[in-house]
Amino acid sequence: MHLSACLSTLLTASLVLASPTPVEKRQSSCSAVGISAQSSTRVVNAFQSSEVVSDLVPPLQPKVAVNVAYGNKQVNLGNVFQVTKTLTAPKLSFSAEQGRDPAGTKYSYFLVDPDVPSEEGVLGVRVNYLHWAVSDAQPSCIADQSPSTDTIYQSLTPASTTRHRYTFLVYRQPADYTPDLVPLQVRAAFDINAYAARKGLELVGGNFLREALTDLA
């Protein structure tokens, strides 16, 4: 009996050591979190120097790195895209946020154009146009996630020869978040700042590209 008990104890211990817990697996796969200080400064400087930060797009202090790609071309803080390359929705992902459980925290992201009708506006007036809204997204290290498209993607086809600054913004959702479905007629005057304040969303990351009607090839 004594020998059997010892063998049973050793077998149990070996199984525990050989099979890490789900929490350990999650922590290992999400070991890279946040955004480096250098990358954060680069994002802030790009937004400010391109004057993306305005009354239409909130000031940004990044907590996550936001990666966006149309096909094999990455969005990189204001680089130029051809109109024909942005007809369908890109792939968007972001890093885990420091100090937040990546498996238990959800995020929303939006694609807005703050340069409607043009970067200069009409008599100095511009509005935001909402091109895309997705909720319940999670960091890229979470393989099993189910984001929800709240506003379907509309292709980037500016009727302007000046390049619009198409801006991707990632927000942390509160636990009780319920997204609004934005009707077509509201897209052209979407107040992202008022929406985020009303819904308790906290901005954690962003990226942007430039595109104009003349960017055909």
UniProtKB/TrEMBL annotation:
Assigned keywords, A-Z: Signal
MF annotations from Gene Ontology: peptidase inhibitor activity; phospholipid binding
Pfam families assigned: PBP
Keyword Lyase belongs to the record: no
Biological process (GO), any one: regulation of proteolysis
Extent of the signal sequence: 1-18
Keyword Membrane: no
CDD domains for the chain: PEBP_euk
Domain of life: Eukaryota
Entry protein name: Phosphatidylethanolamine-binding protein
Species, as recorded: Saxophila tyrrhenica
